[in-house]
C-alpha cells in the first residue's frame, strides 16, 4: 500500500506543479458556469411568463420543477464537457513517461504494474472529484435563491462521477499505447464519443438492435441519474466499463514490460 500511495501523491503533485490541473479545473468551471447562467436565466424567464399568464387568466401559477428544467440540463452539459477535459487529465499519465524515458525505470522498479496503474488512476479520479466539488457552488446558489430537491442533485453528481471514471479508465489505456500526449487525448475523445453517441443510432435500426445499442451508450445510462433515479443496473454498467479500461491498461503495461519498453 505504501508504494500505491507514493504513486498517488507523486501524480497529484505533478498535476498541481504544472498548469494542467489549474487549466482543466478552471476551464471546466468557467464553461459550466456560463451554461449554468444561461440555463438558470432561461428558467427564471419561463417562471415569470408563467406567473404573468396565471395572473392574466386569474389562475394559480403552475409549479415548475427546477431540478428537471434547470439542473438536469446542466448535468447533461457537464457530462459533455467532461468528455473533452478528462482526456487532458489522462493523456500524460503513461505517454509522458514514455516520452521522457522514465517508463523503463517505472517498469523495472519494485512497484508492481498493478500498484502504479491503480495509483495513476486514483490520482486522476481525485482530480476529477475536485472538479465536481468546486462545481457544487452552482447548486449552493440555487439553494440560496430557490428550493431544489437534494436527492436528484446527489444522484446526478454520482452519475457524473461514475461517467467520468469511465472516461478516465480508457484515457489511461490510450495513454499506455503511445508516447504522444496529443494522440492519447484525441484517441480517448474519439473512443468515448463513439460510446457516448451510440444510442443515437437506435432510432435508425431495428428495435432489437436499437435496444442493444442503447445498453452500450454511456449517456443513456446517465439519463436516469440526472432525473434523480438510482438504479444499480447503471452503476454496474459504469463499473464494468471502468474495470474493462483498467484491465486493458494492465495488459498493455504488461506487454510493454515483456517487450522491454
Q: What does this entry look like structurally?
A:
The structure is a single chain. By secondary structure, the chain is mainly α. The protein has one domain. It contains twelve helices and no strands. Helix 2 (19-56) runs parallel beside helix 6, helix 6 crosses helix 12 and helix 8 packs across helix 9. The chain is elongated, with a radius of gyration of 21 Å. The mean pLDDT is 86.
- Assembly category: single chain
Low-confidence stretches: none
Give me the number of helical elements.
12
Number of structural domains: 1
Give the CA-CA distance, first to last residue. Answer: 25 Å
| Spatial extent as radius of gyration | 21 Å
Task: Please outline the major beta sheet.
Answer: none
Structural class category: mainly alpha
Q: Strand tally, please?
A: 0
On the 0 to 100 scale, the average pLDDT is 86
Residue fraction in strands: under 5%
Helicity level = over 70%
Q: Globular, elongated, flat, extended or rod-shaped: what is the shape?
A: elongated
| SSE succession | HHHHHHHHHHHH
Amino acid at each position: 500500500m505504501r508504494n500505491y500511495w507514493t504513486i498517488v501523491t507523486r501524480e497529484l503533485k505533478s498535476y498541481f506543479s504544472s498548469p494542467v490541473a489549474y487549466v482543466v479545473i478552471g476551464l471546466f468551471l468557467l464553461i459550466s458556469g456560463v451554461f449554468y447562467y444561461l440555463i438558470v436565466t432561461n428558467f427564471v424567464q419561463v417562471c415569470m411568463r408563467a406567473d404573468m399568464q396565471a395572473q392574466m387568466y386569474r389562475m394559480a401559477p403552475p409549479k415548475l420543477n427546477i431540478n428537471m428544467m434547470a439542473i438536469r440540463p446542466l448535468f447533461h452539459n457537464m457530462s459533455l464537457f467532461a468528455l473533452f477535459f478528462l482526456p487532458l487529465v489522462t493523456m500524460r499519465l503513461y505517454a509522458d513517461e514514455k516520452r521522457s524515458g522514465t517508463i523503463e525505470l517505472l517498469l523495472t522498479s519494485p512497484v508492481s504494474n498493478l500498484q502504479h496503474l491503480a495509483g495513476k488512476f486514483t490520482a486522476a479520479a481525485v482530480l476529477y472529484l475536485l472538479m465536481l466539488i468546486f462545481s457544487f457552488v452552482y447548486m449552493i446558489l440555487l439553494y440560496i435563491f430557490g428550493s431544489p430537491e437534494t436527492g436528484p442533485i446527489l444522484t446526478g453528481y454520482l452519475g457524473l462521477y461514475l461517467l467520468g471514471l469511465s472516461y478516465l479508465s480508457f484515457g489511461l489505456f490510450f495513454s499506455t499505447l503511445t508516447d504522444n500526449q496529443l494522440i492519447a487525448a484525441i484517441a480517448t475523445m474519439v473512443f468515448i464519443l463513439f460510446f457516448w453517441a451510440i444510442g443515437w443510432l437506435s432510432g435508425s435500426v431495428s428495435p432489437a438492435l436499437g435496444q442493444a445499442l442503447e445498453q452500450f451508450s454511456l449517456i443513456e445510462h446517465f439519463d436516469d441519474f440526472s432525473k434523480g433515479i438510482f438504479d444499480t443496473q447503471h452503476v454496474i454498467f459504469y463499473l464494468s466499463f471502468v474495470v474493462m479500461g483498467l484491465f486493458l491498461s494492465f495488459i498493455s503495461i504488461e506487454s510493454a514490460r515483456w517487450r522491454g519498453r
